[in-house]
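Board notes (copied after class):
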Amino acid sequence: AARAGIGQFVDVGTGIPTEPHPHQIAGRYRDGAVVVGVDNDPVVLAHGRALLEGMPIVRGDVRCPDELIAELDEFIDWDRPVAVLLLAVLHFVTDEQDPAGIVRAFTGRMVPGSVVALSHVCKTGADPVAVAAVEEIYREKATVPGVARTAEQIRGLFGRRLELVEPGVVPVQLWPVPSLRELTAIPVLGGVGRVPDPLAGPSGNALTGNAQSGGAQAGGVRVGVGRG
C-alpha cells in the first residue's frame, strides 16, 4: 500500500509490538507515513506507547466502529487514501456483532485508492473436529470467542464497495505470491480490497480463477488445506 502511494495506515488490533511492525514497513516505502495503532487491551496500549516512538495508539473497540472512527479522526484525513488493516481481527467478532458491517463503516469513510486488508481463520476444507476444538478453547479460556467462517463468508466481508486485488482471497501463505511456509491444518485466508475510482472504470483486479498447488477452490475463493 505504501508503494502504491498510500501514506496513512490504521492497524486495528495492533497487539504487542513485534519486528517488523507496520509503522516500520510503511516508513521504508513512504517518508512521513502516518500509522495509527488501535487496541482495547490496556497492557498492549502501555507497551505500544512505550516502544513505538512517534506512532499514535488509540484505545478503541472494533466492535464499535463508529466510535472508533471518531477517535481516528484526530490522526487520519479521510479525504486522502488510507489503508485499514484488519489482520486476525474479525474472527473475534461474532455474527451478531456484524463483522461485515464493521468493514462497511470504514469503507463508508474511505476515498478511492484506499484499501482494506484482512485475514481470517477459515473452516472450509479444515478438519471439523479441529475447528470445533479451537472454538471451544476460545470460548472457555479467551476473553472473546473465536469464530471460524467459510471461505465464502470471508469473501463476503469485503462487501460490494471493495474491489479485490489479485490474487484475491487466498491462504495467507500464498499472498501476494507463494512462499515456502507450509499451509496450516486450519487455513487462514487473507486478501486486500481496494476502493475503486468510479471514473476510471474496471481495473481488472478480480479473484484469480485457477487454484495453485496446495489449494482448492471454494466458490471462487482459494482454500489451502495443510497436511495437519
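Comment from the instructor: The helical segments are 22-29, 42-51, 65-72, 99-107, 128-141, 151-156. The first helix runs from residue 22 to 29.
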